[in-house]
C-alpha cells in the first residue's frame, strides 16, 4: 500500500467513489502541542482553585477517615460557573434473578469550547437500599460528577462516590 500523503490543494477535495484505497490520517499540525504556555496553564489551575474556594460551602465537604470529599451541590455550581452542559449518553437498568437492581449511567460534560469528558456511574440496591429511585439517582449523580470533575481537571472523587461504609457511618 502506498503510504504517501495526497497533495494538498486549495480547492475543496471531493472523494471518488471508484476507489477503496485507504488514505492515511495526518492530524493538522503534526504533533500534539500545548494550547497554552506553562504560565497560562498555571493561571488556569489557579483560577479553578480560586473558583473552588469561592463556590465551596462548608456543607459541601464530607470528611471520611481524614480525607475530604466534595458533594453534588459543589459540582453543579462548578458546572454553572464554567458554562458546562451535561447530557446522558447511556443509561442501563439490570434486574438480577434475585431481584437486585443495578444501574449503569454514562454522562457527557461539554465545555463552551466543545471539549468534553465522559463519566460513568454505577449503583445497585445492595449498596443503596431497595428504592429503585435512589439507586438510579445515585448512579446518575456519580456519572455527572465524574464527567464534570474530569473535564475541569479536578481529578477529585466526589462524596457521592463513597461506598456503603460511608453511609453506614453517617
Give the SSE map:
Layout: H1 38-55, E1 61-64, E2 67-70, H2 72-82, E3 85-95, E4 101-110, E5 116-124, H3 125-128, H4 132-152, H5 164-169
Antiparallel strand pairs: 1-2, 3-4, 4-5
Helix pairs in contact: 2-4
Q: Which key phrases capture this entry?
A:
Enolase-like, domain 1; 5 strands; 5 helices; 35% helix; flat
Task: Give an overview of the whole structure.
This protein has 170 residues and is of the alpha+beta class. Helices cover 35% and strands 22% of the residues. Helix 2 crosses helix 4.
Q: Outline of this structure?
A:
It contains 5 helices and 5 strands; from the N terminus they run H-E-E-H-E-E-E-H-H-H.
What would the average pLDDT be, to the nearest integer? 82
Strand content: 15-25%
Q: Write down the CATH topology.
A: Enolase-like, domain 1
List low-confidence stretches.
1-16
Structure summary, number of beta strands: 5
Helix content: 25-40%
Query: What CATH architecture label applies?
Result: 2-Layer Sandwich
Amino acid at each position: 500500500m502506498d503510504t504517501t500523503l495526497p497533495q494538498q490543494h486549495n480547492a475543496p477535495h471531493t472523494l471518488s467513489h471508484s476507489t477503496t484505497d485507504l488514505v492515511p490520517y495526518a492530524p493538522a499540525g503534526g504533533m500534539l502541542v500545548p494550547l497554552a504556555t506553562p504560565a497560562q496553564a498555571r493561571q488556569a489551575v489557579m483560577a479553578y482553585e480560586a473558583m473552588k474556594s469561592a463556590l465551596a460551602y462548608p456543607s459541601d465537604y464530607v470528611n471520611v477517615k481524614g480525607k475530604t470529599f466534595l458533594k453534588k451541590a459543589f459540582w453543579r455550581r462548578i458546572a454553572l460557573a464554567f458554562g458546562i452542559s451535561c447530557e446522558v449518553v447511556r443509561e442501563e437498568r439490570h434486574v438480577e434473578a434475585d431481584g437486585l437492581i443495578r444501574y449503569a449511567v454514562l454522562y457527557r460534560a461539554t465545555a463552551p469550547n466543545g471539549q468534553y469528558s465522559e463519566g460513568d456511574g454505577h449503583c445497585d440496591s445492595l449498596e443503596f437500599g431497595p428504592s429503585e429511585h435512589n439507586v438510579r439517582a445515585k448512579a446518575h449523580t456519580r456519572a455527572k460528577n465524574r464527567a464534570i470533575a474530569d473535564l475541569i481537571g479536578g481529578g477529585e472523587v466526589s462524596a457521592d462516590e463513597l461506598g456503603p461504609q460511608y453511609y453506614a457511618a453517617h
